[in-house]
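To close the section, here is one more complete example, presented without commentary so you can practise reading it yourself. The ligand is NAP.
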Amino acid sequence: MILLTGATGKTGSATAIELSNLKVPFRALIRSEEKRDEIEALGGEVIIGSAENRETIDQAMMGIEKLLIILPNCENQLEMEMQLVDSAKAEGVKQIVYMSSVEADEECTSPIPKLHWDTEVYIKDSGLQWTMIKPNFYMQNFIGSAKTIVEQNKFFLPMSEGKTGMIDTRDVGKVIAKVLSEEGHEGQSYQITGPEILSFYNVAEKFSSVLKREVLYVDMPMDAYKNILSQFLTNQWHLDSVIDLFAGIAEGGIEYNTDTFEELIGTPPRSLEDFIEEHRNLYTA
Ligand SMILES: NC(=O)c1ccc[n+]([C@@H]2O[C@H](COP(=O)([O-])OP(=O)(O)OC[C@H]3O[C@@H](n4cnc5c(N)ncnc54)[C@H](OP(=O)(O)O)[C@@H]3O)[C@@H](O)[C@H]2O)c1
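Output:
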């Protein structure tokens, strides 16, 4: 049996859909009773509870062979991830598949990549088998820009000339489901990216060409962007950490892509044009 965390989020839900398509049984630890139906509709078992609660996670971990850890960025993310690893070890789980990030490495200092790296090390030190999933920037991050694209034909970010090898979270889910449903991925760190390296000005060109109207990228000074973001991210650690991450992107920290998706799945990853086309209704008044 497989245990998913984060199964109601972007990559976790994509993973659950893929496992369901593959008819692979899974269980999901989710926080909200209201979301039970969406997991059960995919044939998944549900345990209600938070990854903060050791008793609940021990219960969810019973009879599990493979555990997927996906948690959102928050001040106690590392603590929750370590607790999941401890529980997995105590309950006899064989393998952990961990949602890390492409920036996470031995030298990183930015808080979010650093916590991912610390969890990677903790998992490796646990003696359990592991597979690290290290995606580049998510295309789905542009869902947050839908309102300004609809209202002003503009999106506002502080990424300067920085480029990314952005990937669709549905493709990330495909990779995770493959890793969870077959053997042979133990000890692998998969850096997964989309098909192209794109600046945010290139992204604006793609939006313009698919939506057939001019969409502009407005490059904001980091401080001004931080002021706006502070209205949405009220936790200071989270705000500072996201700004630090974006500064790394603006400086060119993740300007690369890999063939890993195609090597694993056998088809090219989704293009940004496909993503925009499939989300056209969000970007159209
Ligand atoms: N954004 C990017 O470009 C990017 C790129 C690479 C890697 N990443 C990494 O991806 C991870 C986030 O993945 P995502 O974007 O797929 O997640 P997401 O959409 O933000 O969803 C987070 C999931 O975690 C669940 N969750 C939150 N708190 C929990 C708790 N205390 N106990 C149990 N479950 C909890 C949420 O459940 P509810 O439905 O209850 O809220 C939801 O299912 C982060 O660690 C991030 O660093 C992001």
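Once you have examined the tokens, check your reading against these statements. The first strand starts at residue 2 and ends at 5. The longest helix spans residues 111-125.
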